[in-house]
């Protein structure tokens, strides 16, 4: 969906930081995108084109999912719903626990903000193993809504996050794949 020009501009802009935050990790720093308002606008336009007419709400995963997710929701004139780490939202909340490499974590959303039957886009900046995104999808489904789409700026294909999300039957899109 993304044009070859947009992909090229993003690849030239996103910085690869070796051995961060730990040795062996190739961190993709997206922050330089925000130094170029036109590039940011073009990224939003691409993500909006993927979802236009197909969703009723956007859920963004804390915190980098907010950077693009809010703008997607505004452009589509649909609600934006926060998905946050445990303890950051006031009650009433709905929680979902998920496993990490070492231990577990919990994400939450405010009860009643996601409506039964809504078609929901779940957005985050990067798809790695898919654990957090899978938990976000379960939060959406717990409230009777439908996960229609997942979108990401970057998909790390070797970590098979796409595979984990297939069970939801939703479209999965990332502008860049590494």
Task: Write structural notes for this entry.
The chain is built from 5 helices and 9 strands, in the order αββαβαββββαβαβ. The mean pLDDT is 96. Helix 5 links the parallel strand 8 and strand 9 (171-177). The strands form 2 sheets. The protein has a 7-stranded mixed beta sheet, sandwiched between helices. The chain has 178 residues and is an alpha/beta fold.
Task: List the keywords.
single chain; 178 residues; alpha/beta; two-stranded antiparallel sheet; 5 helices
Report the C-alpha radius of gyration, rounded. 16 Å
Number of H/I helices: 5
Mean pLDDT: 96
Poorly predicted runs of 5 or more residues = none
Q: What helical percentage do the residues reach?
A: 25-40%
Kindly state the number of beta strands. Answer: 9
Helix/sheet category: alpha/beta
Strand order of the largest sheet: 5-6-4-3-7-8-9
Q: Estimate the global geometry from the Cα principal axes.
A: globular
| SSE topology string | HEEHEHEEEEHEHE
Profile the largest sheet: 7 strands, mixed
Short note summarizing the structure:
The chain is an alpha/beta fold. Helix content is 31%, strand content 34%.
Helix-strand layout with pairing:
Blueprint: H1 4-13, E1 15-18, E2 26-29, H2 37-51, E3 57-61, H3 64-76, E4 80-85, E5 93-100, E6 103-110, E7 119-127, H4 131-142, E8 146-155, H5 161-165, E9 171-177
Parallel strand pairs: 3-4, 3-7, 7-8, 8-9
Antiparallel strand pairs: 1-2, 4-6, 5-6
Helix pairs in contact: 2-3
């Amino acid at each position: 969906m993304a044009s070859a020009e947009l992909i090229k501009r993003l690849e030239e802009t996103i910085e690869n930081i070796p051995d961060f935050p730990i040795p062996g990790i190739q961190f993709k720093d997206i922050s330089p995108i925000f130094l170029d308002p036109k590039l940011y606008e073009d990224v939003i336009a691409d993500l909006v084109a993927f979802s236009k007419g197909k969703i009723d709400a956007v859920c963004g995963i804390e915190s980098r999912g907010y950077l693009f997710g809010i703008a997607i929701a505004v452009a589509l004139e649909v609600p934006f719903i926060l998905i946050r780490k445990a303890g950051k939202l006031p009650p009433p909340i709905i929680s979902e626990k998920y496993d990490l490499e070492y231990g577990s974590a919990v994400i939450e959303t405010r009860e009643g903000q996601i409506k039964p039957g809504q078609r929901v886009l779940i957005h985050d900046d990067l798809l790695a193993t898919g654990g957090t995104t899978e938990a976000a999808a379960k939060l959406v489904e717990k409230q009777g809504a439908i996960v229609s789409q997942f979108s990401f700026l970057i998909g790390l294909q070797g970590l098979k996050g796409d595979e984990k999300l297939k069970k939801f039957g939703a479209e999965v899109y990332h502008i860049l794949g590494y």
